[in-house]
């Protein structure tokens, strides 16, 4: 199944995407609710909707404004340094344990929403990443069983403010500016992609300019290994979001000059079989001016 959580004139709803059209699942059954959490909590709910979808009204996907797949994620955990060539371009040694950091809820936003370059820095970078949503929680999850804990896969742009990321050994400041982490718009269930979402083309672009192009098969730590590693130290909960790191080609490593995102551009992150996360870049000062005028 391919899901899209989005805003319509009747509020936020969960849609099942079928090509260029979608079925409003929330309208079919109020138990679905306004995001994916009910479907995550009750796998039987999705099965019960299959028959109801037959002959149900369709709307154009283009008429739906994307919202976050999970409105209030409990934990957002991100991997850094998960592609060898990206590690080399950043000047790091290849680690023997994943570099893990966390994002706060204010730092994430939906596909299509403005990705904000902060007023204090012009060094806003892009990072194309695979993200997955935990379906079944747990602690001490084995690698062999880990993929059974995945609800679905989506696209993530781990927008990073590089000078603030480098201010300390911890990356928290550069990874947590408001509205810099774009998610979505689609979530696909595991049966829609190869096991562990491996072997998928992953790319970032601005217009026709290809910024990154790689394959999720090049990740050092797989989705299953990542779940096993994280659940060793913390309990994963349904609806938690985990991002899998970015391939080479990020802006700060471009030669001879870094390639930062600038207001007026639109950055696209695409993962084969999942979709495109597209966001316009705006300047925080301009956004504040518009908000004050409204």
TrEMBL record:
Keywords: Metal-binding
Gene Ontology process terms (BP): carboxylic acid metabolic process
Pfam family for this entry, one: FAA_hydrolase
Annotated Fumarylacetoacetase-like C-terminal domain residues: 75-282
Highest rank taxon of the organism: Bacteria
A GO term for molecular function: isomerase activity
InterPro entries given in the database record: FAH, Fumarylacetoacetase-like_C, Fumarylacetoacetase_C_sf
Family designation: Belongs to the FAH family.
Protein name (database record): 2-keto-4-pentenoate hydratase/2-oxohepta-3-ene-1,7-dioic acid hydratase in catechol pathway
Taxonomic lineage of the native organism: Bacteria, Pseudomonadati, Pseudomonadota, Alphaproteobacteria, Rhodobacterales
